## 1
Amino acid sequence: MNITYITGSPKKKGSTSRFLLEALDQKIAAEHQAFWADSAFDSPDSIYDFMRQSDAVVIAFPLYVDSIPSHLIRLMEQLEPMLKDQRGITLYVIVNCGFYEAEQNHIAIDMMKCWCKQTGLIWGQAVAVGAGGMAQAAPVGTGPSTNLGKAFDKLVLNIEKLDSRETLDITPNFPRFLYKTMAQIGWNTEGKKNGLRRKDLKIRRDLQ
Ligand SMILES: Cc1cc2nc3c(=O)[nH]c(=O)nc-3n(C[C@H](O)[C@H](O)[C@H](O)COP(=O)(O)O)c2cc1C
């Protein structure tokens, strides 16, 4: 079977989405052929060319403002007319977010299901990953990423059979309060590097 992996993060380096796709691919049997595409840097034509030759497509992206990053929405809109006459491609999705709770990703997953209806892609399955900032802290399947490893084992089985299944919600094997504390320290450090004081990070602007 042919599989297209699409990275949905705009980051050039260090993206969690790309990391998750590579970890998933490690678990996929070597007999399957993989095509790799980048939503921010590859043309819609070249991505479509991979997709039309594939049985399964896996898109991994970060949650942006409870939704899909805008560059990826644009790509999806561009692919829509091209995919209209394609049949038999199953879509799998991995969404990761900064919040600890995986459920934050559900609206974006529903949007991807709508896209399947628009394009004729078959809905496969989604993995919703909470605390995405931690996903690269350990190899998938170990330590804080133990739950993630188990979910990927299930996802791989479903991809290889082109099965459709319910969303898998994944939180790390790590306490929520510690994750929040670490995130807080991270924000303060980043703020300082950019010339901001702690209280500057709390400023709320009136958007009227
Ligand atoms: C512009 C922007 C908007 C974001 N919006 C959300 C959000 O609404 N909810 C959330 O939990 N995380 C949000 N995040 C955090 C990212 O989803 C998180 O950092 C993710 O791990 C990044 O994945 P990537 O490395 O693949 O880009 C946002 C990040 C950015 C840069």
## 2
Amino acid sequence: MSKQKGSHRTRRTLKDWTKGNRERVSRLEREGNSDEHFDAVESGYQRMKPRAVTIEGVGEVDSLPRGQVTQAQSGTYDVLLEEQQGVISCRVKRGASTDNDDATLVAIGDFVRVQPLEGDHGLIHHVEERKTLIGRKRTGRKKGGHQVIASNLDQIFCVATAERDDFRRSVIDRYIVGALLGDVTPVIVLNKIDTAPESYLEALAEDMLIYEELGYKLLFVSAKTGAGMDELREECCDKVSAMVGQSGVGKSTLVNALLGREERETGAVRESDGRGRHTTVGSEIFLIPGGGYLIDTPGLREFGIHDLEPQELDGYFVEFFDFLQECKYLPCSHTHEPECAVIEAVELGKIDQGRYMSYLSIIDTLE
Ligand SMILES: Nc1nc2c(ncn2[C@@H]2O[C@H](COP(=O)(O)OP(=O)(O)O)[C@@H](O)[C@H]2O)c(=O)[nH]1
Ligand SMILES: [Mg+2]
Ligand SMILES: [Zn+2]
């Protein structure tokens, strides 16, 4: 059950977008707060000063060179042009058009039409419809709306660390729902297994077995020791994947390990609260030796589900499917209703309790 993507979306300009808070963007740039990087990226084009003012003579956007966004940082986008025409650094044209409804105008992975300018620069004029995406509910001051983290990808690696005591299953379940919503396959990656004692890892593996039973891939890895990395490399093969997860879980370190070079900046975890600092600024796509493309994204403090009605959530928990029609009162939210078949299945152990708890915590966040 994936979200219907309308093929008939009307092309529209996002003029409203340009009303924004420029000050905030420059503050974000100064502070380099990468959790808010996405906000900055979205608003980046507000302060864009087009290098070429007129596009008379350009005509239809379809006549412009096509390319894919391979790097996104603070309103600047690297676009890899088709037909081996190289990479150009782009800003977004004021009033650029898009085939998407999301609050994010340009995201990494987008196919765009650009107007090349002098000196390997260019302007993005149009953003094509995203076939798949991973997105979240926008946070911060510009709350609401659908913030796109990456587009046109096959799968996400939901990275969590095996070391944390505050490891929360619900975060993984949230990413799974988010992935399914955007037609992306979730793969669960538990990193830093070198830091955990064997007994803890065994218990964790047992707890996580449910995901394999549900058909999701689960990898235990260590970017540090290389354990499990061959499997991860194999998962990248012939696919476009993105690393997502909280700051400090080791996404950039994993990317570097897969690349065999220090391409992405990584950071130490803050001692005080065990949380990572935001060391990665911007998103970038890499070609993995051995095959596949991999996108590194900055860490996210929150990953909220956007664009889902509470009554639709059960469609994203595959193990509920067998029971959905058996509830006495339909529609049923499976939270409190009497003779709810889902609740009964949880009580009978036919549905994993942890997954059901995640369902409850997610449904609470949906309007
Ligand atoms: N012990 C251990 N530390 C790791 C591992 N992977 C990453 N780290 C460390 O975790 C910290 C955060 O890594 P980073 O890649 O910046 O995380 P990101 O914010 O998710 O990109 C760095 O100090 C890394 O050296 C691992 O497998 N084992
Ligand atoms: Mg990083
Ligand atoms: Zn029910």
## 3
Amino acid sequence: MASTLEALNISKSYREPLFKNLTLKVPERGLIFIKGPNGSGKSTLLRVLALMEPPDEGEIVLMGEKVGDVTVKDYHKYASYISYSFQEPLLLPTSVEENLRLPTKVSEQKLSELIDRLNLKQLFGKKASKLSGGEKKRVDIARAIIRETPLLFLDEPLSFLDPSYVELVIELIVEESSRRSVLVTATEAIPELEGNASQIVDMVEARRSAKG
Ligand SMILES: Nc1ncnc2c1ncn2[C@@H]1O[C@H](COP(=O)(O)OP(=O)(O)O)[C@@H](O)[C@H]1O
Ligand SMILES: [Mg+2]
């Protein structure tokens, strides 16, 4: 299969048009980088691509299958294809360890690797609700990456992080994109990500063309 996900001429508006006739082909191995300032529609685009909300127009093809009206049963199937880290970390109010052990399709090898690289061991016994913003973000990103799915969505993975973790997460994103499809958003240009991206979506341009 050449692409895991295709968006064909998708459009979306809330009070204002966010993007129009946007076409994306996400390669089986590769990185899609979506950039734009706050409020430019990055999270909306990512949710639409991950089938959490429908586009106003256009079509999405996931793993070779055209997506129609999404049923509950479909969601189970989609969840086995997609790992997602929200902009605001969405952790369960249990320990960090439980948050990392609960997801389906977890690679144990990846889990121990990320515990090491993201320094998570020291957080294991803590309640997720007691963590700092940056700590939550590290746990949330790890929880998405350890799932072995063909698609990985990371909404602003670099926000809240200390500079040393920013470098590390960029490294992880590039590594992951050599194995599977990765879609990442950021509020600014990140040269290391843009250099490795198979497509860059600039939301300012997407909105400009949406307004006509
Ligand atoms: N569910 C929604 N209902 C109404 N407006 C929304 C909704 N989601 C997003 N928006 C609006 O769409 C615009 C883009 O938001 P968002 O996709 O969160 O941007 P970004 O992630 O780039 O900061 C904002 O003006 C936001 O208020
Ligand atoms: Mg956002």
## 4
Amino acid sequence: MPELPEVETVRRGLAPHMTSRVVREVCVRVPALRWPIPADLSECIRGERVHQVRRRGKYLLFEFSSGWMVIHLGMSGSLRWVDAQIPVRKHDHLDLVFDHGLLRLHDPRRFGAVLWHDRIAGPVEAHPLLARLGLEPLSTPAEQIGQRLYAGTRDRRSSIKAVLLAGDLVVGAGNIYACESLYRAQIHPATRGGRISLSRCQRLAVAVRDTLSDALARGGTTLKDFVGSDGASGYFQIDALVYGREGQACRRCAGTIRRVVQQQRASFYCPGCQH
Ligand SMILES: [Zn+2]
């Protein structure tokens, strides 16, 4: 599943191709994604210029004069910038055709989404899918994220791992990155959110930022895989400190990494140094 660093890498790869360029054609092959691709998408954006390509959480926001095309990659989606003569493959559901190439959405499992948010409906941040998203980890100071984590968990009974996965305080810490961040912050994933002190929340905020920044820095080298024309769409292979390392030695204390299941998701942690 593409996570926030992958989506940010896609954004950085696509923006130079699309910014200030005009959409000439919209080709919808399979509208049935998580929600149907809007039947009037072509009417909304054909002949219109892309002003900018932004990101909020894992949503890509393509801004036009009349509104925003919002894309989520779901479980298996990928977006590539390709030459017009590249043949269509199975599961290539949508093309946006420009003069100098095209944007192609590929999604075998079809959990992704292509939505339209008209400017009449207000800023795109007010879209129901975006309105409740937490702080952006890469562009918000760690101190502010730490304060939000602290204030937002005082009355919460759920585990800190569940708090991170919920994404309403800070976005971007999906299952793997949540495990990695908690390991770096030396916080046990099952600790109740409301029991974590402000200083530990601050440490966790730094850990989330560092984990995602590191993944983004590594992913930068695989940028071509996301937007090139070679058909590759692999997601980042992170060099995990704790995720997937059950039974192996902790790199900090040499204790043994354990695996537990929380909310049907695997958590990996070191009982020696995460409390
Ligand atoms: Zn350890």
